[in-house]
Amino acid sequence: MVNDLISDSLTRIRNAAMRRLDVATLLHSKSVEAMVGILADKGYVESFNVVENGTKKSINVVLKYDENGKTVINEMKRVSKPGRRVYKPAADIKRFKNGYGTIIVSTSKGVLPNDKAFELGIGGEVMATIW
């Protein structure tokens, strides 16, 4: 049984990218789906779709590679963990890696990337960083 679906999803995407697979299959939750949606919007993955297998759902993520066959994701890290939650105000999540990276933040308005959270002026729990 998986206790932390966010870190499990990040690890599955990271491992599939290292093996040069086309698709990574993730366990479904609303927060994982929102996080993968942000990754797709920012261009870190090609696309994703939710697949229903009877009563269970999963998410198939199509990974993105550059012209040399290298993954476009340099690093994915889980920041806030079940044992140690990390919260940041809006001023602290303005930029990451000089604008080349993205911080995924769980806010009162939903799961948002750092630029949208800064625009709205709300902080929250820092779920992950990616660049």
What does this structure look like?
The longest helix is centred in the first third of the chain and has 14 residues, at 5-18. A hairpin with a 2-residue loop joins strand 6 and strand 7 (110-113). The chain is built from three helices and eight strands. The protein has a single domain, classed as 2-Layer Sandwich (Dna Ligase, domain 1). By secondary structure, the protein is an alpha+beta fold. Helix content is 26%, strand content 34%.
Would you kindly provide a brief summary of this structure?
The protein has 131 residues and is α+β, with helices and mostly antiparallel strands. It has one domain: Dna Ligase, domain 1, CATH 3.30.1490. It has helices at 5-18, 30-42, 114-120, and strands at 23-27, 45-53, 56-63, 76-78, 87-88, 102-107, 110-113, 124-130.
Determine the mean pLDDT.
92
Overall CATH architecture: 2-Layer Sandwich
* CATH fold call: Dna Ligase, domain 1
- What pattern of helices and strands is seen along the backbone? HEHEEEEEEHE
Low-confidence stretches are: none
CATH class category: Alpha Beta
Biggest sheet overview:
5 strands, antiparallel
**Global structural class:** alpha+beta
Total beta-strand segments: 8
Tell me, briefly, the overall form: globular
